[in-house]
Design brief:
Layout: E1 29-30, H1 37-47, E2 50-53, H2 60-74, H3 78-81, E3 91-97, E4 102-112, H4 121-146, H5 155-159, E5 166-172, E6 189-194, E7 200-205, E8 211-214, E9 220-222, E10 230-234, H6 236-241, E11 251-254, E12 261-268, E13 275-276, E14 294-295, H7 296-304
Length: 322
């Protein structure tokens, strides 16, 4: 059993327990090799802000290698793992998520992609190279589907040498051990509800369930796990650049009482100096911008100073987004 450090078990009573949901079979599936994929992709971003990518071309060997090294790290004694932390902002952390009081049943490693990796350098760099390439291809498909030029209008922000992208390894240990049964461990929050502030997030996890997305009106659906595919989140910045046409998906993770969950997430962000605003080619007629222009640095700073569940875009809205 993995033992996480403070805050202690008794403090997890502050985590919200959730009503169980059934696995949802309607997650949009995008196959980049299909001719209609760009149109399906746009619809998925409008309706869900979330979709699954199959036939992605990333070797399973690269995926399995990083997952194996991640599990090896998370299996180390706590004292060894803590040598890679605290996450200020990069490094190893557990239970405490950010500086503003959010907690979850999770331990993690957080890397900046422009930094030397903490321990899994070769496997990490190989994996990130593949998912970054895939993310850029998906963003170019989005531009094609939206019929805007140049088609690298989104992807160039990730390809920029100053791109502020990060990578996260999350480990959700099984909810077992003394005292945990009193906290309804089948529904314990692993990572609280939030949206991702960047442009796009590329998620891959093992075959343990737990990921949920919100359809609005406080309705949550559980995403069936698929260790052979990738899941894509629309981020806040992409919502702004499409003037609210694409929806930044609100999501969370529930811990599992029996099995551990390992997820690997690439967060594709723009350079800190980049100005984020709705793209002119997507503004129709007299359509007004829903958002004030801001730099990625301004938004990132604001997001870092907020709670996970906060509507981070609210401070940057001109008028209410529908």
């Amino acid at each position: 059993m993995v033992v996480l450090s403070n805050p202690g078990i008794e403090q997890l009573s502050s985590l919200r327990n959730c009503k169980p949901t059934t696995l949802f079979s309607g997650i949009p599936i995008i196959d980049p090799s299909k001719s209609d994929s760009k149109h399906l992709l746009v619809k998925a971003c409008e309706d869900f802000g979330f979709f699954k990518v199959v036939n992605h071309g990333i070797p399973m060997e690269s995926i399995s290698r990083l997952e194996s090294e991640a599990l090896s790290f998370f299996s180390l004694p706590l004292s060894e793992k803590q040598k890679a932390g605290p996450p200020n902002p990069f490094g190893y952390g557990n239970k405490i998520i950010g500086p503003n009081g959010d907690v979850g049943w999770v331990e993690y490693l957080l890397f900046t992609i422009n930094q030397e990796s903490i321990s899994q350098r070769s496997a990490l760099n190989d994996y990130i190279s593949g998912v970054k390439k895939m993310a850029c291809e998906i963003l170019e498909m989005m531009a094609d589907g939206l019929r805007i030029q140049p088609r690298n209008v989104f992807s160039k922000l990730l390809m920029d040498e100053q791109s502020d992208s990060v990578f996260r390894l999350n480990h959700y240990p099984p909810c077992t051990g003394p005292g945990i049964h009193t906290l309804n461990s089948n529904n314990m929050i692993g990572f609280g509800e939030h949206t991702d502030p960047q442009i796009i997030s590329v998620l891959r996890s093992n075959n343990t369930s737990g990921l949920q997305i919100s359809l609005g009106d406080s309705k949550w659906i559980s995403v069936p796990p698929d260790q052979n595919s990738f899941f894509i989140n629309v981020g806040d910045s992409l919502q702004v650049m499409t003037n609210g046409r694409f929806k930044s998906v609100r999501h969370r993770v529930l811990a599992n009482s029996m099995k551990s969950r390992v997820s690997m997430i690439y967060f594709g962000g723009p350079p800190l100096r980049e100005k984020i605003a709705p793209l002119a080619p997507l503004m129709k007629g007299e359509e007004e911008s829903l958002y004030k222009e801001f730099t990625w640095f301004e938004y990132k700073t604001s997001a870092y100073n907020s709670r996970l569940a906060d509507n981070r875009l609210l401070l940057f809205q001109k008028i209410a987004a529908s």
